[in-house]
């Protein structure tokens, strides 16, 4: 087979090869399939700090299969480090930057026949998948896997509560945290990182049972080598991402998301990946599937005993997909060159405490619900699997803040009380700008029994309680959330999928006429993001004229 390099005009090709030789590449190897190794390694993010070692194994596999591997880097942001301060505004915008940078490196050089993308965490996995769909070169994803946890989730949560109550100092909290986050790999809970690792496999874009392998385990290193070999095979067979990323594949991924009670952020990322593949995934589809697919996977934050390490031990993604197979299209293609049915045919659930029986689920509905009403005409999201039963119907008094910092100041001053519906607005994609996560806010509110948190920002996969995010339209676009005043009654009914501001239409119209939208100062990148991003209801995709 001809590689892409061979199609370049002779003089240009000769000069190009000369430059590659300057990098130490053997001239005789340039007629092989050239595989881009898109690596998001850095020394800041726990989920990525080990990806150089994985990349070396991927390259070994590529070379064994007769290919030439050439590696480049892109960025990765740690949501655990950006959480709770202004830095979180850069997390979601980094997704587009990652996809763009991979496109620049691949299309700019014009020499690659295929790609392996190495990633692990919240915005990086979807950014890489967006790039793969956009470029449509034969590609697959190698995942960074999960760090082991030496203590249970409930022990980590208890230490955080003790710190917030003044019962544990900084050094003490760090010591406990190191036991829960001891080494390289994605954080062990079912947050966005592990949700998106799992959904990469559910979409068919990574090798089976690699979602939650322990980072740097021997099985993970061997799987990385196999991924390198498979990348060359995909080139030879001409299997491209858009052959795999079909509407049925996305419906499978949504079903898996709901069955495992994954992160709300997936409702931003799956539509964005689908958009790159020319497919629309409306929020209504998530809710339609949620009403059918039961919730089966009891891991944190849906359960304080178990993590994704336990989910892998219980059989991993193949076992979960086998259990919900009646809700899946099993004939879709995957990067193995085989169908989902072939990939999962021998899978078994090994622990029913972790993956429950389909006819004995934890809950009859999926882990995520889409709420609508005058407060969220285009939709809002809640992780219903992490909401106590007594909070699933709620009426409270609004207490309103125009940013996360104002809320934290009010909390410190003792202004938050039971029965409050806490509204934090102007934190959406345009208004933030950047759509910060409000996870620290949910941790602070954990001391209350009967409160709600409502925001046009978003939530970490680790958030629990009556935490409603992604409210659309957002405040910066003049959504009804911008019109809420202190003392207004807000009604939430998860069973009926409703969120309602109990204020008359006449009063709302009057407030709308008087509204002065809050404008935030922001750096250049965030200003650009604000004017180019679309609503959270559409995945906060880039909205530009094409």
What does this structure look like?
With 546 residues, this protein is an alpha/beta fold. It has 20 helices and 12 strands. The strands form 2 sheets. It has an 8-stranded mixed beta sheet with strand order 5-6-10-9-8-7-11-12. A 4-stranded parallel beta sheet has the order 2-1-3-4, with helices on both faces. Strand 7, helix 17 and strand 8 form a beta-alpha-beta unit. Helix 5 packs parallel to helix 12, helix 6 runs antiparallel to helix 7 and helix 8 packs across helix 11. The radius of gyration is 23 Å and the shape is globular.
Features of this protein?
12 strands, 546 residues, alpha/beta, 38% helix, four-stranded parallel sheet, single chain
Biggest sheet overview: 8 strands, mixed
Helical amount: 25-40%
Strand order of the largest sheet: 5-6-10-9-8-7-11-12
Question: What is the beta-strand fraction?
Answer: 5-15%
Average residue-wise pLDDT: 96
Structural class: alpha/beta
Supply Rg: 23 Å
What is the global morphology?
A: globular
Distance between the termini: 35 Å
Strand elements, count: 12
Please render the helix and strand layout as text.
Blueprint: H1 10-22, E1 34-39, H2 51-64, E2 68-73, H3 79-82, H4 91-109, E3 114-119, H5 124-135, E4 139-143, H6 153-164, H7 170-180, H8 192-202, H9 218-237, H10 241-244, H11 247-260, H12 266-276, H13 283-290, H14 308-313, H15 316-323, H16 340-344, E5 369-373, E6 376-382, E7 393-401, H17 404-412, E8 420-424, H18 439-444, E9 452-455, E10 467-472, E11 489-493, E12 498-501, H19 505-514, H20 524-532
Parallel strand pairs: 1-2, 1-3, 3-4, 7-8, 8-9, 9-10
Antiparallel strand pairs: 5-6, 6-10, 7-11, 11-12
């Amino acid at each position: 087979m001809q590689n892409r390099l061979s199609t370049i005009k002779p003089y240009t090709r000769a000069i190009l090869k000369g430059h590659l030789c300057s990098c130490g590449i053997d001239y005789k190897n340039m007629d092989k399939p050239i595989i881009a190794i898109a690596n998001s390694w850095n020394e800041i993010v726990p989920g990525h700090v080990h990806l150089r070692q994985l990349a070396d194994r991927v390259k070994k596999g590529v070379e064994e299969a007769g290919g030439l591997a050439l590696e480049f880097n892109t960025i990765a942001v740690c949501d655990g480090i950006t959480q709770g301060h202004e830095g979180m505004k850069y997390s979601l915008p980094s997704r587009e930057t990652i996809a763009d940078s991979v496109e620049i490196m691949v299309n700019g050089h014009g020499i690659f026949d295929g790609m392996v993308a190495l990633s692990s965490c919240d915005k990086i996995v979807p950014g890489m998948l967006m790039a793969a769909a956009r470029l449509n070169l034969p590609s697959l994803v190698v995942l960074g896997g999960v760090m082991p946890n030496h203590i249970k989730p409930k022990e980590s949560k208890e230490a955080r509560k003790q710190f917030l109550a003044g019962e544990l100092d900084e050094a003490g909290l760090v010591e406990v945290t190191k036991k829960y986050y001891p080494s390289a790999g994605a954080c062990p809970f079912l947050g966005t990182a592990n949700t998106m690792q799992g959904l990469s496999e559910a979409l068919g874009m990574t090798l089976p049972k690699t979602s939650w392998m322990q980072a740097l385990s021997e099985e993970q290193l061997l799987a990385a080598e196999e991924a390198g070999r498979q990348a060359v095979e995909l080139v030879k067979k001409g299997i491209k991402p858009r052959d795999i990323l079909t509407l049925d594949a996305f419906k499978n991924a949504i079903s898996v998301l709901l069955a495992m009670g994954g992160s709300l952020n997936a409702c931003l990322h799956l539509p964005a990946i689908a958009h790159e593949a020319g497919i629309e995934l409306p929020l209504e589809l998530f809710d339609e599937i949620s009403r059918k697919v039961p919730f089966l996977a009891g891991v944190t934050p849906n359960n304080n005993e178990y993590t994704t390490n336990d989910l892998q031990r219980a059989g991993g993604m193949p076992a979960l997909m086998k259990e919900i197979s009646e809700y899946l299209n099993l004939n879709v293609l995957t990067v193995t060159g085989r169908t989902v049915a072939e990939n999962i045919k021998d899978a078994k659930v090994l622990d029913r405490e972790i993956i429950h029986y389909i006819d004995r689920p934890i809950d009859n509905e999926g882990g995520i619900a889409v709420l609508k009403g005058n407060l969220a005409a285009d939709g809002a999201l809640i992780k219903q699997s992490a909401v106590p039963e007594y909070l699933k119907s709620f009426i409270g008094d609004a207490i309103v803040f125009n940013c996360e910092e104002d809320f934290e100041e009010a909390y410190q001053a003792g202004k938050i009380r039971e029965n409050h519906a806490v509204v934090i607005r102007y934190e959406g994609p345009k208004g933030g700008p950047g759509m910060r996560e409000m996870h620290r806010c949910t941790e602070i509110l954990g001391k209350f029994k009967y409160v709600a948190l409502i925001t046009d920002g978003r939530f970490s996969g680790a958030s629990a309680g009556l935490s409603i995010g992604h409210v659309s339209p957002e405040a910066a676009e003049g959504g009804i959330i911008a019109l809420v005043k202190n003392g207004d009654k807000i009604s939430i009914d998860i069973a009926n999928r409703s969120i309602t501001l109990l204020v008359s239409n006449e009063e709302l119209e009057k407030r709308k006429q008087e509204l002065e939208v809050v404008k935030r100062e922001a750096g250049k990148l965030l200003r650009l993001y604000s004017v180019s991003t679309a609503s959270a209801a559409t995945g906060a995709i880039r909205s530009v004229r094409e």
